[in-house]
């Protein structure tokens, strides 16, 4: 069963058609590369999946169940997590504090409940171990590399019972070594059966880690095929409009 299925999803902002009849499926443990030029509709599609926007038309199913998200928390409760491009991390806090930001663990009895730092450190350490990351729970985020910051953001998605992780340009503006770290983190999610939608402009990253690639252009999906059946040249032609569809 597909973990995510979109059927004829459209989004209109007044007279502007940001999305026009997009259908998409995502299997458990599958990495889907979502590509397209700026304004192609990638961000709008992801925001609909993440519960930021309701679709103007169409259906969405998660694990075979029809869903209607009104807020991001609705998507999270259905097992969908997002790693945004800016990561939304607090530089002055530790890795563990960022993993649990807004979801802190507490102990004691009200009104004497306090933060359970030890439990948060231990769970964060286990999450980083699962991801095979060298990130340590007590390290301050401001002292971390780009790859370690991504590990913190990805570990946060594993707190809940997530089935789908949406990643927005995770390898933008980081070094070659850190790019390799992030791609390995995506592999770890796939090994755990988590489906990933990887939004990226970096062709080598998509062709290295994705199972399928979907290409958006002017609000429409113009291609959706296995990586093995495509090529960077074909995807570039689809993005620019030199090729209408594939």
Automatic annotation (TrEMBL):
Domain (ABC transporter) ranges: 4-243
Superkingdom of the organism of origin: Bacteria
Residues forming coiled coils: none
Pfam families found in the cross-reference section: ABC_tran
Matching InterPro entries: AAA+_ATPase, ABC_carbohydrate_import_ATPase, ABC_transporter-like_ATP-bd, P-loop_NTPase
GO MF term (any one): ATP binding
Keywords recorded for this protein, A-Z: ATP-binding, Nucleotide-binding
Protein name from the UniProt record: Sugar ABC transporter ATP-binding protein
Source organism of the structure: Manganibacter manganicus
Upper lineage: Bacteria, Pseudomonadati, Pseudomonadota, Alphaproteobacteria, Hyphomicrobiales
């Amino acid at each position: 069963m597909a973990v995510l299925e979109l059927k004829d999803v459209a989004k209109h902002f007044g007279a502007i058609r940001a999305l026009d009849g997009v259908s998409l499926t995502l299997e458990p443990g599958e990495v889907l590369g979502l590509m397209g030029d700026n304004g192609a509709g990638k961000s709008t599609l992801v925001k609909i999946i993440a519960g930021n926007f309701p679709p103007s038309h169409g259906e969405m199913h998660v694990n075979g169940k029809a869903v209607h998200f009104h807020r991001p928390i609705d998507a999270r409760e259905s097992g969908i997590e997002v790693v945004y491009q800016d990561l939304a991390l607090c530089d002055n806090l530790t890795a563990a504090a960022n993993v649990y930001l807004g979801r802190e663990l507490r102990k004691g009895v009200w009104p004497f409940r306090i933060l359970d730092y030890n439990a948060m450190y231990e769970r964060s350490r286990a999450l980083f171990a699962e991801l095979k990351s060298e990130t340590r729970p007590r390290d301050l985020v401001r002292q971390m590399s780009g790859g370690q910051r991504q590990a913190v953001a990805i570990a946060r998605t594993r707190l809940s019972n997530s089935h789908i992780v949406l990643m927005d340009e995770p390898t933008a503006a980081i070094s070659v070594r850190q790019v390799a770290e992030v791609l390995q983190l995506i592999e770890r999610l796939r090994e755990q059966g988590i489906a990933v939608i990887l939004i990226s402009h970096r062709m080598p990253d998509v062709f290295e880690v994705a199972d399928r690639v979907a290409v958006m252009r002017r609000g429409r999906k113009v291609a959706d095929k296995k990586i093995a059946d495509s090529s960077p040249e074909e995807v570039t032609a689809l993005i620019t409009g030199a090729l209408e569809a594939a």
